[in-house]
TrEMBL record:
The keyword Transmembrane helix applies. It comes from Eutrema salsugineum. Its EC number is 7.1.3.1. Keywords: Ion transport, Magnesium, Membrane, Translocase, Transmembrane, Transmembrane helix, Transport. InterPro entries: PPase-energised_H-pump. Its main location: membrane. It is an enzyme of class 7 (translocase). The chain crosses the membrane at residues 41-61, 67-85, 124-142, 154-181, 202-226, 246-264, 348-372, 392-412, 419-441, 479-497, 509-531, 576-594, 615-638, 686-704, 716-735. This is H(+)-exporting diphosphatase.
Length: 802
């Protein structure tokens, strides 16, 4: 990506004479190959193909279950609504030419990095798919699979196909998140010139489009895979596979989604924070220029990073979260139904798909409830955007409670235990309350309206060191309440499930694990609206950058600053939500892993004894993995930022006219440096995450073979997964909350508190924000993806450890 020659070589006049001429870094608009092919098709041909696809989908759904037909219908409705939201957002004006030029530069940088990053990820995915194929061709089969005539080759091809489909859908989810953000940012900037509420509505609806597509794809992808396997394998017909064993064939889908999400989060996080830290250290600290100032050579790279790190990566992240939770809950539902000998187990297996279908409906209502006109009763000149978003979330929560109760009555009622559905409805209520509690706790620790962030800002007034100490202590303290909430949620849901009345043939209660699965579904029952709030943050951040670079009036910047501060809080709260859901989902995946080991080994596997030395060592290795992964992720940001700092310093030295607006910075050089560094640096921590459980499992399987412990490999991996989950949750909570609090402490001072911008307190707060950047946007988000990916790897590779 090169700057236009006419701009680069133009005669250098005063910047104020040409204050709004910016480098158009774009060469051509990039779209994935599949979209380019679809655009070339005749409209009638495309319509016929879509009708054929919909017909095939609904035929498979009707051949499987009426529940699947319902899921397909809701998902298609959500896609149609997302099209409406897209047209509504794109119909808004892009503002004056200077805004459009900056937006074009951001869009080109984001699309260029996305293309290169996902090209690298796709090559690694194909290589890993080949490895999985080779492993599965020589692995053992479960007795049920052998009885159904499912050979090794068929099992291998099914798993590889599911893995590649999961990876593809996760990549599309990431692209959708980035696509909408790079088009909505300039429209939010333009709307901010008129009113804060209009800018808020555009940002929310743009985020809503991405959220509906991401959640809808996760649901419909699993539903299509399930119905395809059901029809193709003749499930439940004489001599064929039982429907309760079918969910085990879907684990490859979750692994593919996790694989892409991890590398997307790592690469995007390294990109965005490497550019951000480099831009802040030289621009704010050394040169004393404002954030997003057009004189900073790294400012375009910083704004590009918001899109590839916070939007594209978060879309893939939430897609993976929902996919992993659905698959693990389907496995546990099928296992429980088989133990209880429930006559029609399809309701227990397909329940997660229905819950997330209702999520699409209620989140759509919540998104559309945010209007563009301010309430006349509001007396303040600008209504608090957080209050508006909170109203939408409260409405979504109320609807979630109602639809969740209806879903449990519809699908989980059984004559064997007539009141079981009510117990599971209470489990869902526990999950919904847990989600709300996580959002509130994260908001309390990261919003500058509350005491913790204000105390952190006050510590900045006595220097850089006290700011760092206060931020670290705040992050450490913030782990306590979430852990207590998770603990209460797991125990409550397990107890409610165990007392549901569902028992096996020996009279032993069997609903406990499924109760925790239902609680996890309850927590994620508003996932689409939560993702909407998350996407709102980087879109608002980009809008503020465009306003600053295009030198709009201060009143416009005040509106985007307010939206940006709220966006920081929503990003922190949704990260807390993601960690809480990751904790519950990892517990489900751990339980599903133990069920799968039991199925393959044909022996009970219900507990892991850490008093066995090898098993304890597995736990230590799992804990070490979290710390080592975090260290490598943060170090990657540091090395990338050093390259940016050196480049920005070089430009300020070699082009002294930049500070007087007489010379143009070379934005494209910083973009190229950050993109190259992010792609290079994401490989090592990603490879560590993938290889560790496989190597540990195989090594201890061999050791167990020679020491007469046949399940040692599986036990050590289970211990590794258990300890990594516990350490990962605590580490991610610490990193995300500390980073978000440092950021908003800086924002609080910039409102005029404690001396305002340029004061000594502000300089110390900038240091804290710089330290917190790799915490909250690289290491923290990557860790909660890591712990779910470890669980999906162990599910896929379980036969290798036996």
């Amino acid at each position: 990506m090169m700057m236009d020659e006419d701009i680069e070589q133009a005669s250098l006049m005063s910047f104020n004479d040409r204050p709004r001429a910016f480098p158009n870094m774009r060469s051509k608009t990039y779209s994935p190959l599949i979209f380019r092919i679809l655009r070339k098709l005749n409209v009638r041909v495309l319509s016929i193909l879509l009708l054929l696809c919909f017909g095939a989908i609904f035929y498979m759904g009707a051949s499987t279950s009426p529940i699947i037909v319902f899921v397909f219908a809701v998902c298609i409705f959500s896609f149609l609504l997302s099209v409406y939201l897209t047209k509504w957002v794109l119909a808004k004006d892009e503002g004056p030419p200077e805004m459009v030029q900056i937006s074009d530069a951001i869009r080109d940088g984001a699309e260029g990095f996305f293309r290169t990053q996902y090209s690298t990820i796709s090559k690694m995915a194909i290589l890993l798919a080949f490895v999985i194929l080779c492993i599965y061709l020589f692995r053992n089969l479960t007795p049920q699979q052998e009885a159904a005539g499912l050979g090794r080759a068929m099992s291998a091809y099914i798993t590889v196909a599911a893995f590649l489909l999961g990876a593809l859908c996760s990549g599309i989810a990431g692209y959708v998140g980035m696509w909408v953000s790079v088009r909505a940012n300039v429209r939010v900037s333009s709307a901010a010139r008129r009113s804060a509420r209009e800018a808020l509505q555009i940002a929310v609806r743009a985020g809503g489009f991405s959220a509906l597509v991401v959640v809808g794809m996760a649901v419909i992808g699993i539903a299509i895979l399930y119905s395809t396997f059901y029809v193709w394998l003749g499930v439940d017909s004489p001599g064929a596979m039982n429907v309760t064993d079918l969910p085990l064939l879907l684990v490859g889908y979750g692994f593919g989604a996790s694989f892409v999400a991890l590398f997307a989060q790592l690469g995007g996080g390294i990109y965005t924070k490497g550019a951000d830290v480099g831009a802040d250290l030289v621009g704010k600290v050394e040169q004393g220029i404002p954030e997003d100032d057009p004189r900073n050579p790294a400012v375009i790279a910083d704004l590009v990073g918001d899109n590839v790190g916070d939007c594209a990566a978060r879309g893939a992240d939430l897609f993976e979260s929902i996919a992993a939770e659905i698959i693990s809950a389907m496995i546990l539902g099928g296992t429980m139904a088989k133990k209880c000998k429930i006559e029609d187990p399809s309701g227990f297996i397909l329940f997660p798909l229905v819950v997330h279908s209702f999520d699409l409906v209620i989140s759509s209502i919540g998104i559309l409830s945010i209007k563009g006109t301010r309430d006349a009763s509001v007396k303040s000149p600008v209504e608090d955007p957080m209050a508006v978003l909170q109203k939408g979330y409260s409405l979504t929560i109320i609807l979630a409670v109602l639809t969740f109760g209806a879903s449990t009555r519809w699908l989980l009622y059984t004559e064997q235990a007539p009141s079981a559905w009510f117990s599971f409805a209470l489990c869902g209520l526990v999950g919904i309350i847990t989600a709300y509690a996580f959002v509130w706790i994260s908001k309390y620790y990261t919003d500058y309206k509350h005491e913790p962030v204000r105390t952190l800002a006050l510590a900045s007034s006595t220097g850089h060191g006290t700011n760092i100490i206060a931020g670290v202590s705040l992050g450490l303290e913030s782990t306590a309440l979430p852990v207590l909430v998770i603990s209460v949620a797991i125990i409550s849901a397990y107890w409610l499930g165990n007392t549901s009345g569902l028992v096996d043939e020996n009279g032993t209660p069997t609903g406990g694990l499924f109760g925790t699965a239902v609680a996890t579904m309850g927590m994620l029952s508003t996932a689409a609206y939560v993702l909407t709030m998350d996407m709102f943050g980087p879109i608002a951040d980009n809008a503020g950058g465009i306003v600053e670079m295009s030198q709009q009036p201060e009143s416009v910047r005040e509106i985007t600053d307010l939206l940006d501060a709220v966006g920081n809080t929503t990003k922190a709260t949704t990260k807390g939500f993601a960690i809480g859901s990751a904790a519950l989902a990892s517990f489900l995946l751990f339980s599903a892993y133990m069920d799968e080991v039991s199925a393959f080994a044909n022996v009970p596997f219900k507990e892991v004894d850490i008093a066995i030395p090898e098993v304890f060592v597995g736990g230590l290795l799992g804990s070490m993995l979290i710390f080592l992964f975090s260290a490598w992720a943060c170090a990657a940001v540091g090395r990338t930022a050093q390259e940016v700092v050196n480049e920005v310093r070089r430009q300020f030295i070699e082009r002294p006219g930049i500070m007087e607006y007489k010379e143009k910075p070379d934005y494209s050089r910083c973009v190229a440096i950050v993109a190259s560094a992010a792609l290079r640096e994401m490989i090592k921590p990603g490879a560590l995450a993938i290889a560790s459980p496989i190597v540990v499992g195989i090594v201890f399987r061999i050791l167990g073979y020679y020491t007469g412990q046949p399940l040692l490999g599986a036990k050590v991996v289970a211990s590794m997964l258990m300890f990594a989950t516990v350490c990962g949750i605590l580490m991610a909570l610490f990193l995300n909350t500390a980073g978000g609090a440092w950021d908003n402490a800086k924002k609080y001072i910039e409102t005029g508190a404690l001396g305002g911008k340029g004061s000594e307190a502000h300089k110390a707060a900038v240091t804290g924000d710089t330290v917190g950047d790799p915490f909250k946007d690289t290491a923290g988000p990557s860790i909660h993806v890591l712990i779910k990916m470890l669980a999906t790897i162990t599910l896929v590779m379980a036969p290798v450890f036996l």
